[in-house]
Design goal:
Its EC number is 5.1.1.1. This is Alanine racemase. It is an enzyme of class 5 (isomerase). The protein is of the alpha/beta class. Helices cover about 25% and strands about 25% of the residues. The chain is built from 10 helices and 16 strands. It has an 8-stranded parallel beta barrel with strand order 2-3-4-5-6-7-8-9. Strands 1, 10, 13, 14, 15 and 16 form a 6-stranded mixed β-sheet that branches. Strand 3, helix 5 and strand 4 form a beta-alpha-beta unit. The longest helix is centred in the middle third of the chain and has 20 residues. The mean pLDDT is about 95.
Length: about 325
């Protein structure tokens, strides 16, 4: 049976580096959305808790309930208001016109659109947003934004920082004790001036991506289903995209595109962690390669597959099926 192995020591080392950058575990919001970027939210949740991190962000209420026992503060980032919000959670207010659809007394963080232009309110409309929030009886606990290009540190990053600074000034004139957060993983590890009055939302960096000092924690393994000898000229898989040019022992392993692997079409050289290539097309539930024994590491660095498929590590990771067992090693 295929399995995902999570290196606990590497995860702990990453958290230590993140806390050192932020200067205090209380300033960290671990982003656990989409099953902790495919790593497994519930199995990992006790670890940041052990380090004194008590704030996480998730995608929706379903994810919040799954790890509710571990964290005091849970921010739900992508919630469609329904009037039945849980008073124990915090909800991102992404669209001010929806303010009346939240249950009275709901705790919220207001999203500020500083340039990403996905959701949130513009800085020039923030005072009107405050008025509507108060009128609707919502509890504003924080404001936040998301940088569009913190990993590039181009001019837009600094413009967005300045706009968020303006939003903070306006918010502090009206409210006491608000929480502010704008820095994601890339901003925390690349920016020179770290704000002292903000929390930091850390997503992919927890898991070893985004800085060379961090350690990848996830390794994906498949297990052998069968083996056979391909004679020269024989093919394996759909469409005969691979044919042996000499006698070779191959095996079929129990991972396919239904498990979250990208559908490799058999063209090019898609390498596994041991540098052996997948032979032929990936099937729904399996792939074939040179026989490498009962267990094979498919990848331990999602960047290798991301580069091949011209995408990013995030997409490779989050597509891993939640039913694949995750274990700490």
């Amino acid at each position: 049976m295929s399995v995902i192995k999570l290196n606990q020591k590497s995860y702990e080392n990453n958290l230590k580096q993140i806390i050192e950058k932020a200067e205090n575990p209380s300033k960290i919001i671990c982003v656990f959305k989409d099953n902790a970027y495919g790593h497994g939210a519930k199995i990992l949740a006790p670890i940041p808790k052990k380090f004194g991190i008590n704030f996480v962000a998730v995608k929706n209420e379903k994810e919040a309930y799954e790890i509710q026992e571990f964290f005091k503060n849970i921010l739900i980032l992508s919630h469609k208001p329904n009037g039945n919000e849980n008073p124990q959670f915090i909800y991102a207010l992404n669209e001010i016109s929806k303010v009346k659809e939240y249950k009275t007394g709901t705790k919220i963080h207001l999203k500020i659109d500083t340039g990403m232009h996905r959701n949130g309110v513009f800085v020039e409309n923030i005072e009107d947003a405050f008025f509507k929030i108060d009128k609707a009886g919502l509890i504003l606990e924080g404001i936040f934004t998301h940088f569009s290009s913190a990993d590039e540190l181009d001019g837009s990053f600094f413009i967005q920082k300045q706009k968020f600074h303006q939003a903070k000034i306006l918010a502090q004139k009206k409210y006491d004790h608000l929480i502010f957060h704008s820095f994601n993983s890339a901003a925390l590890f690349r920016a020179q001036d770290i704000p002292k009055d903000e929390l930091f939302r850390i997503g992919i960096a927890q898991f070893g991506y985004g800085d060379e000092k961090l350690e990848k924690i996830l390794s994906l393994y498949a297990h052998k289903l069968s083996e056979r000898i391909l004679e020269s000229g024989q093919s394996v898989g759909y469409g005969r995209s691979f044919s042996a040019y000499e006698k070779i022992k191959i095996a079929t392993y129990d991972l396919g595109y239904a498990d979250g692997l990208f559908r490799y079409n058999g063209k090019g050289d898609l390498a596994l962690a041991n540098h052996k290539n997948i032979l032929g097309k990936i099937s729904m539930d399996s792939f074939s390669c040179e026989d490498c024994g009962e267990e094979i590491c498919v990848f331990n660095d999602a960047n290798l597959w991301a580069d091949f498929f011209n995408t990013i590590s995030y997409e490779i990771l989050v597509k891993l099926h939640p039913d694949i067992p995750r274990i700490l090693v």
